[in-house]
Design brief:
The complex is a heterodimer. Chain A is of the alpha/beta class. Chain A has three domains: 3-258, Rossmann fold (3-Layer(aba) Sandwich); 277-356 and 444-523, Rossmann fold, CATH 3.40.50.300; 362-443, no CATH class. Chain A is built from 18 helices and 22 strands. A six-stranded mixed β-sheet of chain A has the order 6-7-8-3-9-10, with helices on both faces. In chain A, helix 7 (199-212) links the parallel strand 7 (185-189) and strand 8. Chain B has a domain at 18-215. Chain B is mostly helical. In chain B, strands 1-4 form a two-stranded antiparallel sheet. In chain B, strands 2-3 form a two-stranded antiparallel sheet. The longest helix of chain B has 30 residues, at 3-32. Classes of the chains: A alpha/beta, B mainly alpha. Chains A and B meet through helix 3 and helix 4 of A and helix 6 and helix 7 of B.
């Protein structure tokens, strides 16, 4: 070890001697706000207070999109705060970069692991060391990795290439990498999302670290984990803190209420489903996720004409893949997609659009619009093949202008110029209004809507809900995927809960109990 | 064919190898960090001009240093544009090429000898005499630099950092590395070697400046970088392959038997085509930094 490095490490060590002051608050955030102007219309974090004590595991619980990762990124220096103040051991600090975080003893294990794949474990760790650039500290790093592996029982081969490691091993490598800097606070962002089978092992390691005096902030969306691992739990909903509880003095029911809200959602009034004709049917569907892991495992359901079926669940449980399979964007490995009695399994998106299926896609900026193109171009993207939008090879500009104007005004999108503004400069909410307009003006026979109101304000949400109800009355079948339980309960005639690629529960929309569904979503357990 | 001819071609190949190898080695460093500089051709041209001016003012060593300094300056501007100012790398690179072509042409006309500027013998690099013949010391430099670049990239922490920002800038950011700065410095260091290559052409190898003096060598260097899969030692080999066919072509095109059948212009195409074929034959098996060409933004 070079003299410089030894000095650097010893300074860190003195600062973070884990035995001192167990139970003291070592990391605190007060009034933390974070917004992403232009991308989101509301604050992602709205005046959050959170603290972590030495020797405890503090769990941060919330749905996807609640802002958990953003808090972690703010506390570790990856994001700058819009407002608020961070304190380390009671002293105010400003974190401008992850390096600042490390210097103050804050180590973060990212959900998307921050490892350079073609490098070995030791090389990845060497990257972040303070030693001189012309040294090559690999031998020392390898020795210390072996030592840390042993101490925390996070076994890893320092010479293994990261891309050859399993997800669990990669995560261990990431944790060792963070521990190498001798932090006093460890932030783990959804560490169990990659290693659900191997979680126990991780929990043991975390518990022994807490006993050694580390302060640990553990982020998860799973209620059981919060109850099992944490000493305290803070629940986050839509960027707001719903309060902090001692784990011993709370239970599943209370946490579900905090996570999803306490009021009873409305179930919009409607006539019963009249038609008996099946609009969309899928049978025993299986498909792979982008990482080639099974994403759908034997999903079967039908949606009648004039029926809305809501798919609830934490995202990443197969909902995206389901929507992609039905709209032709993903191949099925088994099973059938039948639209109005005709088999459309593994057909092209064009054929499926032709069958009358509209799609409000999940990633509006990537899948919904072509960002550098203008508003008018994006609004008619799916219509330009036919008259009157085009005549032969030429676009009918005046007709397109009129059509776009109508959609923009009907959906209240804020757009400066139809033919000049690039779509990229619009906020997410305005882009979503344009997509809603494009996908519904034809009154499609079938609509696949994935997170259709995410990022919209209350007025626009109501407007969209009314629109869906009108489509329903006109006989459209709607497959609604949402993480917003209020939305699911308001709109759906039937509610399906998805977990790990399966439908684990199917409820009737009018009589559904909010607590029951919420618990099923949070635990992923089906009715037995 | 006698041995003298073969030896001549071999020595000629070494001379022709130098600019490709220098430029390519530099570009390997730049591309490892994630920046792709298509402006190397222009930097060689500028280096040839400033190198000649420097050599005439202060001797060949000064000329080489000024050529390299020119490359460094242009590389720094390119790096700043492509990182801090989030410019498009391709456009910035093309900009360098257009700027260089314009400036050098203007300078040549301004000198009063349109199209050609010969560097006086006194300002040119002196060859080292050996029992086997005279060689430019730059040939030694061209053999040493790729080895040094290899050590830098694969045997130092700095190299680890350079490759990390090219491969996964987000992970590098988390590790506390200043991505923009490191990318800037890497591409500037790389560009300085292209400038050096230009100065070598004008004050050592060819001994003159014309507006076509770079003759596509910047692009061929880019091709050898692709062929090498960012391995400086393979860049050395690629440079030699090009140099060999370059000289072979010159020799073949002077044979009366050939001249009668094939116009010399077609024969001079051969080294370029062979190099491209080699690259095309190898590409697909090489692996490039995952984030190459992609600007990095944190939020």
């Amino acid at each position: 070890m070079s003299a410089n490095e030894a000095k650097g490490l010893s300074i860190l060590k003195n600062k973070s001697d884990p035995e001192e002051g167990k139970g003291d608050i070592i990391l605190e955030g007060k009034g933390i706000c974070k917004g992403f102007p232009g991308v989101w219309e509301h604050l992602i974090l709205d005046h959050i207070d959170i603290d972590v004590k030495a020797g405890e595991i503090h769990t941060l619980l919330g749905e996807n999109g609640a802002g958990k990762t953003v808090i972690a990124n703010c506390l570790s220096g990856f994001y700058l705060l819009s407002e608020g103040q961070i304190y380390v051991k009671g002293k105010p600090v400003t974190l401008k970069s992850p390096r600042d975080g490390i210097r103050h003893g804050i180590g973060m294990v990212h959900q998307e692991l921050a490892l350079v794949k073609p490098f070995t474990v030791a090389e990845n760790i060497a990257l972040g060391l303070p030693s001189s650039d012309l040294t090559f500290p690999l031998p020392e790093v390898e020795a210390k990795v072996r030592e840390l592996s042993e101490k925390y029982r996070l076994y890893i081969d320092p010479l293994a290439r990261v891309e050859d490691l399993s997800a669990g091993e990669q995560q261990r490598a990431e944790i060792i990498k963070v521990l190498y800097h001798n932090p006093k606070i460890l932030i783990l962002d959804e560490p169990t999302s990659l290693i659900s089978a191997d979680a126990e092992h991780l929990f043991h390691a975390l518990n022994s670290m807490a006993e050694m005096g580390y302060g640990i902030l553990f982020i998860t969306h799973k209620i059981e984990e919060a109850l099992e691992v944490g000493d305290r739990v803070t629940v986050l909903r839509l960027g707001k803190s719903m309060g902090t509880r001692e784990t011993a003095q709370t239970d599943k029911t209370e946490l579900v209420k905090l996570m999803f809200g306490e009021h009873t959602p409305v179930h919009l009034e409607r006539k019963p489903v009249e038609s008996n004709k099946i609009s969309l049917e899928v049978k025993d569907l299986e498909a792979l996720a982008p990482d080639n892991e099974p994403a759908l495992q034997g999903v079967s359901f039908t949606i009648k004409e004039g029926e809305i079926v809501g798919f609830a669940g934490i995202s990443g449980n197969g909902q995206s893949e389901l929507a992609e399979v039905i709209t032709g964007l993903r191949k099925v490995t088994k099973g059938q997609v039948i639209i109005h009695g005709k088999d459309y399994t593994n057909q092209s998106p064009k054929a499926i659009i032709g069958a009358g299926v509209s799609h409000i896609p999940e990633k509006r900026r990537e899948m919904g619009v072509i960002e550098p193109m203008t508003v008018a171009e994006n609004v008619v993207l799916k219509d330009i093949r036919v008259s009157p939008f085009s005549r032969g090879p030429f676009l009918n500009m005046s007709y397109i202008t009129g059509h776009t104007k109508e959609i923009v005004s009907r959906f209240g999108a804020l757009v400066s110029d139809l033919w000049k503004s690039q779509t990229r400069i619009l906020s997410g909410g305005n882009i979503q209004r344009l997509i809603l307009g494009r996908e519904t003006w034809r009154m499609p026979k079938c609509l696949v809507a994935v997170y259709p109101t995410q990022g919209l304000d209350a007025k626009a949400v109501n407007h969209s809900w009314e629109l869906f109800m009108r489509l329903r009355e006109a006989g459209s079948s709607i497959l609604l995927v949402s993480e917003d339980l209020d939305e699911i309960m308001a709109l759906s005639d039937r509610i399906a809960v998805m977990s790990r690629g399966k439908i684990v529960g199917m409820f009737d929309g009018s009589g559904a109990k909010w607590e029951e569904i919420g618990l099923m979503i949070a635990t992923g357990a089906g009715r037995t | 064919m006698n041995l003298g001819y073969l030896w001549g071609i071999f020595v000629g190949s070494l001379y022709a190898m130098v600019p490709i190898t220098l430029t390519g080695t530099g570009e390997v460093i730049g591309e490892s960090s994630g920046l792709f500089n298509i402006g190397l051709e222009g930097i060689i041209l500028l280096g040839a001009m400033t190198g000649a001016l420097g050599a005439e003012a202060g001797g060949p060593i000064v000329g080489l240093l000024i050529g390299a300094g020119t490359g460094l300056a242009i590389g720094l501007i390119f790096g700043l544009v492509c990182t801090y100012f989030r410019g498009v790398q391709l456009i910035a690179g093309v900009g360098i090429n257009l700027f260089a072509a314009g400036l050098v042409t203007f300078w040549l006309i301004h000198l009063g000898v349109p199209g050609h500027h010969a560097v006086p013998e006194a300002s040119r690099m002196v060859a080292i005499s050996t029992p086997l013949g005279d060689f430019s010391p730059m040939i030694i430099v061209a053999f040493v630099l790729p080895v040094l670049a290899c050590i830098l990239l694969f045997r130092t922490k700095l190299g680890l950092k350079i490759r990390a920002v090219g491969e996964n800038p987000q992970a590098a950011d988390v590790a506390g590395i200043n991505i923009h700065l490191l990318r800037c410095l890497s591409t500037a260091a790389g560009a300085s070697l292209a400038g050096l290559a230009g100065a070598y052409i004008s004050i050592d190898w060819i001994g003159s400046v014309t507006k076509e003096i770079s003759a596509g060598r910047g692009f061929i260097a880019l091709a050898t970088v692709v062929f090498s899969g960012l391995n400086p030692l393979l860049v050395l080999l690629g440079g030699f392959i090009f140099g060999f066919f370059d000289n072979l072509a010159v020799w073949v095109s002077t044979m009366p038997a050939v001249q009668r059948v094939i116009p010399w212009q077609f024969v001079s195409m051969a080294p370029y085509i062979v190099t491209l074929l080699v690259v095309a034959g190898v590409i697909g098996r090489v692996r490039f930094p995952a984030a190459m060409g992609i600007p990095y933004e944190r939020e």
